[in-house]
Amino acid sequence: MKILFTGGGTAGHIFPIIAIVRELNRTGIQAEYSFIGPKDDFGSILLSQEGIEIKNISAGKIRRYANWKSIAWNIIDVGFKVPLGFLQSFFYMFFYSPDIVFSKGGYGSLAPSFCGWLFQVPVVLHESDAAPGLANKIISKFTKRVLVSFPVPYTEYFSAEKMISVGNPIREELLGGSPEKGKKLFRLTGEKPVLLIMGGSQGAQVINDLVLNFLPQVIKLFEIIHQTGEKNYEQVKAEARVVINREDDKYYHPVPFLKEIELREAYASIDMVISRAGSGSIFEIAAVGKPSVLIPLANSAQDHQVKNAYIYGSKRAAIVVEEANLAPHFLLERLKNLFSHPQELERMSENAKTFAKPESARLVAEYILGILS
User: Fold this and answer.
1) Statement to judge: residues 89 and 214 lie in one domain
2) Rounded to an integer, what distance in angstroms lies between the CA atom of residue 323 and that of residue 204?
3) Number of domains making up the chain
4) Same domain membership, residue 163 and residue 312
5) Residue 45 and which of 76, 230, 242, 344 are 20 to 30 A apart at CA?
6) How is 217-284 classified by DSSP, letter by letter?
7) 39 CB contacts (<8 Å, ≥6 apart)?
8) Any idea what DSSP says for residue 303?
9) How far apart are CA 331 and CA 336, in angstroms?
10) What percent of the chain shows pLDDT beyond 90?
């Protein structure tokens, strides 16, 4: 049995695939897994650790903002990268002969998904976000099923007959952390409420700037675990030393990237999350039942992070602060107000759990097995 995964190459595509593969393995099936998509060193490492063979292809995307650079890149991508990607996908699909193609969507999955359809292989698309991008709208035309994440009508984008609502697959290993282990791992003092601040795979610099701008004030009230991103870690750490007093240093815990075990223990030991509004982040936060502040990435494709954030926020599990309103003093006042009303935080936590679909990866795995049986 051969299962081919494909996706755009961001963390939002990679982690759900990992969750699904682990659920498939728990069933005891004997299967070969492969992934085909644009080159991404970080994603390749994570997928390889799960025993997934990696094949990279050329991939291009359409830039919709109008300037001479975007026009030039569109000519290169559409005229060269996209055709090359289709050719690479065709030959790989021909020799690998998968039994099913599972597409996480994105521009990098367009060619493999089309070639799967061309070879009459069942193609299943999973849409993570509340508003699909152009590539997923195209892919949906030649898929067997479209699995969707958010509890909203997608009928303006996809055929109603094809859709199944399953949520967004998360790794089961992120659940069941220990507050005691988290306290020890991050050297938390336990003297103040703890915030986990994450910038996501895109837009980390905006979040990092926000943290540095209000760190001297917020550190007086909260203890902070701050995922800075690998590239920004040393700079953020150095700048933080300048803006906070030495006696407050014990309340600030910057980390470059939270590995799976670290993230599990962090989720267990914190009181609130401040995060971007990618679908993966939202469904993880919901599954661990934590109140959150969501800061959607401005100018994300189809404004999908803004739409994700407001759908989740409408369930009263999070508050949404758009980048245009991201003044440090404004956010600090919102945090102070929330933590002065413990019953509100408890209500947000319960609403998060109600929204969560921690069984999503299992549902998707079962659906894949159903097609293959």
Assistant:
1) no
2) 12
3) 2
4) no
5) 76
6) HHTTT-EEEEE--TTTHHHHHHHHHHHS-GGGGGGEEEES---HHHHHHHHHH-SEEEE---HHHHHH
7) 9, 56
8) G
9) 9
10) 79
Q: Tell me what pLDDT residue 75 has.
A: 58
As a dihedral over the C-alpha atoms of residue 246, residue 251, residue 254, residue 258, rounded to 10 degrees, the angle is 160
Residue 331: domain span: 173-355
Do 346 and 245 fall into the same domain?
Answer: yes
Dump the DSSP string for 12-71. Answer: HHHHHHHHHHHHHHHTT---EEEEEES--HHHHHHHHHTT-EEEE--------S-SHHHH
H or E stretch at 183: helix 179-186
Task: Say if residue 241's pLDDT is above 80.
Answer: yes
329 and 213 together in one domain: yes
Residues 258 and 294 in one domain: yes
Is residue 104 located within the same domain as residue 11? Answer: yes
Whether residue 259 is found in the same domain as residue 338: yes
pLDDT (0 to 100) of residue 74: 54
Q: Over 60: is that where the pLDDT of 161 sits?
A: yes
Residue whose tokens read 């926000």: 210
242 is written with which tokens? Answer: 């300048």
